[in-house]
Structures are given as C-alpha cells and as structure tokens.
Amino acid sequence: MNELRDEFLSRELHEECGIFGIYNNSDAASLSYYGLHALQHRGQEAAGIAACDTGGEINCYKGKGLLAEVFNNEIIATLPGRHAIGHVRYSTADANQIENVQPIMVRSHTASFAVAHNGQIVNAPELRHELEKRGSIFQGVSDSELLAHMIQVEEGSFEECIVKACRRFEGAFAFVILTNKAIYAVRDKNGLRPVSIAKLPEGGYCVSSETCAYDIVAGEYVRDLKAGEIVKIDDEGIHSYQYTDDTQYKMCAMEYIYFARPDSTIDGINVHTARRLSGRALAKREDTEADIVIGVPDSSTSAAIGFAEEIGLPYEIGLIKNRYVGRTFIQPTQKQRERGVRMKLSAVSSIVKGKRVFMIDDSIVRGTTSKRIVQLLKEAGATEVHVRICSAPLISPCFYGVDTSTYDELISARLTHDELCEFIGADSLRFMEVDEMGESFGTKNLCTACFDGQYCTKLFSYGEILESEKNK
Ligand code: SF4
What is the pLDDT averaged over residues 183-211? Predict the structure, then answer.
C-alpha cells in the first residue's frame, strides 16, 4: 500500500498514450511511424513499433524520446512485415524506465505476441500481486505487461485468453495486440478510451487512438470500437467479440476538452466542433463586458472561436505559442520557471494593449500557469483580464490513465472560487457547470469524474488512498 501511495502522490500532469496498429500493408512499420507521428501529442516520452509477417517472427524496436528521436529509416528497415503495432507514451519519470516502454514483447512456448495500451487498469496492483503469488515475474509496471501475463496464465485459444483477461480488468483501457496471424484491438467496457478502425486503400486495415492518424496513411474511417469489444483483424477481415455485455459509454470528457487533436472525431463527435460548442455555451451565460476574445493556444483556440461567435466580439490572437521549447527544460528556481512560461507563450502587446480581454482556457489544474498568463497579458497592457474556462473546476484526481494531478495539487479542490480568482490575478473568473459540458458537446455519455468525483468503476486500493488524502 505504501508503494501505491507514493506512486499516487508523485504523479504529475498528463499521462496519456497513443496506440496504432496496421494489418496487411507492405509498409506496415513505416505507416505505423506516420500514424504514430499524428498521435505524438498523446505522448512524447517514448515510442515503439513491433512488426511481423504472417507466420514470421515479431521484431520490436523502442526507445525513449520523440518518435523522430527513436526512429530513422535504417531502424524502420529492421522491422519488416505486413503487420505492425506501435505506441507513443507520456509518463511520469518513475514509470519511464525502458521496461515500461511499449510495445511489450512476449516470446514463450505457448504464444509470441506484442502488446501496447492506453489507459489505466485500476485493479492492476491487486492482479499483479495475485500473479506474482502464482509465480509470474514482472519486468516493469505497465498494464500492457499485466495483460501479457494474464493472457499467458489463462487457458484456451488466444482469443479466449484475451476475453478472460479483460473480464478481470476494471478501469480504462484500449489495447492493440500483434501476433503473426492477426492484430487485435480492445476497448474497455465503459468506453473510457477511444480506439477506432479504418480501411487502407490497398485492402488492409489500421486501428488508432485517434482518427487524425488516418489522414496521413490514407485510411478511410470505418467505425469506433464498441465498449467491451475485441476486434480481430486477419486475412478473413474483421471479427468482433464482446468480452462482456455489461457495458456503458463514458468517454473521457478530457479527450474532448484538452487531449485529442481538433481534427479527430471520437464516438461520432468532432473534437474541434465539441470545443467550439462549449465556447458558445459558456458565452450564453456571459454578462461581463469586454473588447476582445483570445484563447490560450492550442487546445483553447476552438472554444475561443465559439465564445467570440456567440458573444459577437472579435476573436484575436493575443497569445503566441513558441513550438520549439525543449520538453525537458529544467526549471529549478522560480525565476527560471517564470522564464520557462515566457519561452512557451508570449502576449501580443499590439493586440491586447488598452483592451478588456476575455481569456478562454480549457481547464485550471494547479493555477500557476493561469496566474502567469494573466500576468503576461497585464504586462502587455490588457486593462482587464476575464478568465473563462471551458470545463468545470477539477476537484478530483483521475485514475483512468490521465494524470490530472494529485488531490493536493488541484487548486479548485482547495480554494473557493473567489480565492482562486484572486490567486490567478484575474478581474473575473467563470467555469462551466459539469452538466453543461456534455450538453454542449451533444452527448450524455461522458466520464466527468475529475470534475464531480463520480467514478464509473470501483477504485480498489486507489479509493482508500483518495479518501485518506481528502481527510488529511
Ligand atoms: S476522470 Fe477526468 S481525465 Fe480521467 S477519464 Fe474521467 S474525465 Fe477523463
């Protein structure tokens, strides 16, 4: 329990991953590289690709860093075959040991396969403990490795072993699995993580966390996986299995608000459109007067456009993002941290000087970034900064693979609304209501647990830790 608590308390922002798979294409590894490139926003800490031919050996290459740092043409040439899966990973420092970089390879007398995932299995500590007692030896802590062990200890056909393993899992997960006969894609029974299928022009198929990856490989979107579905793609085409009929749709609201690329469509809802509609909904309740609307780039741009449309004010580019800031920038002192924000974002003085500004952002986590952006805008001459957030206050941690920070660090869980407004230095502050988010996106099928503490699964040991943190 102590290790679990340490892990819980040391978590940082944004653990997300991207998965991609391809079946039956002469450039499987190379196309996987391009597909993963479109998913790079979901993880920049490590990347990997495993590939094989029908009946052949699976080769895998993976490493830490951006996709372009891990792979080059020579390395991709070492991954021959018509089938492949790949992964991009964002993780905390502790969990970023090479053992956790995916795909995870299994070579045993019963089966050889590679597996990669996105999400978090909340009963993983309990299952890992159970398997260790039965003799399994784990190299790392990834849920992909857990699935690999679960498949190996179950009995039956490969499909039956996947079904049995998934039935034991609680939480959020999307898996891709590669064997030398097929690829498999799995979506959890609560539909918390996105994964869909597309058809390739020459007849093969691909699967991806986000549909934005299909454009780059000329894939034609077929459909999203259903909650609780396992899809097998082989020479006969697509086969569908339900590992359970006890399903619901609780897509992570944060995918629409922050994580996914605006050109992706998840469960039939385009992400840009969802954000734009949320901006419009937020503007409908507005009674403050201002001169211009600006968005915090990039994830708030669509919402800011919607807000400006609805309220009838000009949408302006008041903040510029520098895309070339190193992602491992070390920030040991307050002064260096402040310089770090200035390196990432600049306020455009000629746009905001002398203006009352609506500043649209997607969320507030610790509050320190919002505080610095408001300060930047005021230093650039904005006379008033009214912060409008296109989501509800974040009050509870995520246990489904997105590190929205620990309970202690979530500023909305600690401060009142007025205290938070004062802390960030805004002239006014307003969030969306929890119900308003789904209404504006056009769906009721959302997980909003980090906004309302209503988790759609049991939390197992994490639930106990959360309660003790709340009561501290
Ligand atoms: S708790 Fe929040 S971040 Fe986690 S899956 Fe639910 S909506 Fe997404």
Answer: 97
How far from each other are the two terminal CA atoms of the chain, in whole angstroms? 17
Q: Which residue has the tokens 């978090």?
A: 120
What topology does CATH give the domain 269-455?
A: Rossmann fold (3.40.50)
Question: What is the distance in A from the centroid of ligand 1 to the CA of 404?
Answer: 8
Q: Measured between alpha carbons, how far is 266 from 249 in angstroms, rounded to an integer? A: 12
Which CATH number among 3.40.50.12780, 1.10.3720.10, 3.60.20.10, 3.30.1180.10 corresponds to the domain 10-250? 3.60.20.10
Q: Which atom of ligand 1 is nearest to the CA of 253?
A: 7
The active-site residue, picked from 17, 161, 166, 390, is 17
* Range 289-326 burial, b when 16+ CB lie within 10 A, else e: ebbbbbbbbebbbbbbbbbbebbebebbebbeeeeeee
Q: Is the pLDDT of residue 150 over 60?
A: yes
Place of tokens 């996947």: 162
Q: Is the pLDDT of residue 11 over 70?
A: no
Question: Mean pLDDT across the chain, nearest whole number?
Answer: 91
Nearest residue by C-alpha to atom 8 in ligand 1: 252
70-84, 172-186, 346-360, 456-470: segment of lowest average pLDDT: 456-470
52 marked among binding-site residues:
no
- pLDDT of 337: 58
Task: Report the atom number in ligand 1 closest to the C-alpha of 255.
Answer: 8
Residue 335 banded pLDDT, cuts 50, 70, 90: low
Helix (H, G, I), strand (E, B) or coil at 404: strand
Which residue matches tokens 């802590």?
Answer: 141
Domain spans of the chain?
A: 10-250, 269-455
pLDDT confidence of residue 8:
44
pLDDT given at position 314: 98
Question: Is there a binding annotation on residue 240?
Answer: no
**Rounded-to-integer distance, Cα 19 and Cα 21, Å:** 7
Residues 16 and 425: their CA atoms lie apart, in Å, by: 30
Q: Is 252 annotated as a binding residue?
A: yes
| Active site (annotated) includes residue 17 | yes
